[in-house]
Amino acid sequence: MATVELRFSAQPEHVRTARLVAAAVARRAGVDEAVLDEVRLAVGEACSRAVGLHRSHGITAPVRVALTEEEKIFSIEVGDGVTAAGSEAGGEPSGTREGAPSGDPYDSDDEDEMGLAVISGLVDDVEVTSGDDGGVIRMSWPTTPAVATP
Question: Which region among 68-72, 107-111, 128-132 has the lowest average model confidence (pLDDT)?
Answer without folding.
Answer: 107-111
